[in-house]
Design brief:
Length: about 300
Amino acid sequence: MLNSMIALLNTTLRMATPLILAALGGVFTERSGVINIALEGIMLISAFMAMAGSYLTGNPWLGVLTAIIFGILVSLIHAILSISLKADQIVSGTAINIFATGLTAFLLRVMFESAGQSPSVTDVGTWTIPIINDIPIIGDVLGEQIPFVYIALILVAISYWVLFKTPFGLRIRAVGEHPAAADSVGINVIKTRYIAVLISGFFAGLAGASISIGLLDVFVENMTSGRGFIALAAMIFGRWTPQGALLAALLFGFADALQMLAQSIGLDFIPRQFLLMLPYVLTILALTGVIGSSEPPAASGEPYEKE
């Protein structure tokens, strides 16, 4: 029983990691007033670029860097469309998601002359934390993990500090709540929103890399499997805060790990679909106000025009 619980917690952390990273990106962009449902597409492109970078160089960390660069570049496209050109933010994000699906499938065929899956590449492996690894039970869960797990947890703390303890974080929150008032006191609304969207691209790039060369060592077509949308749900369930997004992502990861464990130990009497449904039910309850209030930033989704 103890081994099963440790395996469950270990898998929960791994499955939640891409969601944590992408949800942090969503927190930054939506706190600035820009809806970014393109997280799914950014993650998918970044997952491919991480694999390609590792494949071409043999260095998985260059793959991670490549994923981050392309994550930022794709988010820049969304920023130009939704902030400068004032396009509908949902439509812009949807277009990027569709583009990402086609682009990665095309590049997979061009690079490897095959469809469906890339060859195995060098992944980032695991890190062992000596002191933590020696602690009973905790060491079994946190002592040896893929690097992205530790990176994600550290970035949650950094994101909280930036958003709620720094002048820059205050500017982000101000332009997301009342951009006209922020503008009136000298805050550059457009610049702040651009930076926030690019930060979301950084996080989504890391999230994509964590899937293709963290959880796995290959790229598979559509391998994000809706994780970008799940991350948005985690962000909303977490009330647009880094710590809330972390807890919500862990809940989603727990549901995913639970259905995997249930299958491996033969608990067929619990439908897999039921286990996967639980976090979404909680999200719906949060959105309807049954579990606390869940109000987005006041100017979320609204383009800003300087008067």
